[in-house]
Design goal:
Blueprint lengths: L7 H5 L17 H24 L5 H16 L20 H12 L23 H18 L1
């Protein structure tokens, strides 16, 4: 097996990178950059072909083409998710917050708009935890005491 020889001139031009700076700051290889460049150049032609597919005879092809056009033209639709279970939040309220709520609650409601529709409804009781009920009762008693 033959040994490979290194040309002494090939090492003469090498210099170490500065500290904290690599040799490929964008992180892309030349091949990847070339592929991206070619894809961008073909973009208008590809979009035209995709738009033609929105008129295809097969409804599945039309649907997929329409999805692709909409995703690229308007951005992908946001995904919705469901949550099952409980979420607990701790809310801190100080005296200034309570006073602001009291002041707002004393203000009269504005009159309904002329084109407003009146909806008749009966109040519905909702289940309340014991702690919430006790806190509500205590807050009500405190407000009555403060009002005199």
């Amino acid at each position: 097996m033959a040994k490979t020889q290194t040309n002494p001139n090939s090492l003469a031009n090498l210099r170490p990178f500065k500290k904290g700076i690599g040799g490929n700051p964008s992180g892309k290889s030349k091949a990847q950059a070339l592929v991206e460049k070619r894809c961008r150049a073909a973009g208008p032609e590809v979009v035209a072909a995709l738009l033609e597919l929105t008129k295809h005879d097969d409804p599945r092809v039309r649907l997929e083409a329409c999805k692709q056009v909409l995703d690229r033209g308007f951005g992908r639709a946001k995904q919705q998710s469901e949550h099952h279970g409980t979420v607990q939040h701790q809310i801190t309220v100080n005296a200034a917050h309570l006073e602001a709520v009291r002041n707002i609650s004393r203000q009269p409601l504005p009159p309904p708009a002329e084109d407003a529709t009146l909806i008749e409804a009966e109040p519905v009781a909702t289940p309340m935890s014991t702690e919430s009920a006790d806190a509500s009762k205590a807050a009500y008693a405190e407000r009555k005491r403060a009002e005199g």
